[in-house]
Amino acid sequence: GAVVSQHPSWVICKSGTSVKIECRSLDFQATTMFWYRQFPKQSLMLMATSNEGSKATYEQGVEKDKFLINHASLTLSTLTVTSAHPEDSSFYICSARDGGAWNTIYFGEGSWLTVV
Amino acid sequence: KQEVTQIPAALSVPEGENLVLNCSFTDSAIYNLQWFRQDPGKGLTSLLLIQSSQREQTSGRLNASLDKSSGRSTLYIAASQPGDSATYLCAARLSDSNYQLIWGAGTKLIIKP
Predict the structure, then answer these.
(1) Mutate which of A6, A7, A22, A43 to disrupt the B interface (most B C-beta within 10 Å)?
(2) Nearest CA in chain B to A96
(3) Is B42 within 8 Å of A49 when comparing Cβ atoms?
(4) C-alpha–C-alpha distance, residues B17 and A110, integer Å
């Protein structure tokens, strides 16, 4: 079946540095990808929606200059957390829409970010 | 605005028991509802997806039901096993054209051997 690969699964970075998380659709073309964030004991919250070749649409309260999303191809979207701070430590997960399979949405495995 | 609630937040039961996890949503106009499993430090595993026109879906020891009129979905786990210990999340998709999922906060399930 369709697979969405997310990398890295775990990342620790120093405060002030940037970290990039990749989300790849392995056997389908993902017209749309979604990025979610989950803080401990809270629901997953949608951060942004990205369509291939266009700028991402960010949800209210999400800083687009801090969370850079690039969806340059139909199989790859990246989330870059710039100038990371400890409060950015969270679980980030992407999902991708397979436009060729009744718009089924598949999820990546998620990435745990710890900023120290 | 659609809100999804899962109660209880945590549940601990002895091995072998049948159990029910609850998910409620405020707006009955949903496209589908999905149940996921999240293991500590890991990603999400999709368990069952119920379309708005369906009333239930079954997979092995899992059965999910959907009652749109009352804004409720339940996940029934039969003959629970320690390996079922995880956080269970439900998420509602709003419409055919809207792919955003609205998530509950999850129920942390512990099955005691």
Answers:
(1) A43
(2) B99
(3) no
(4) 31
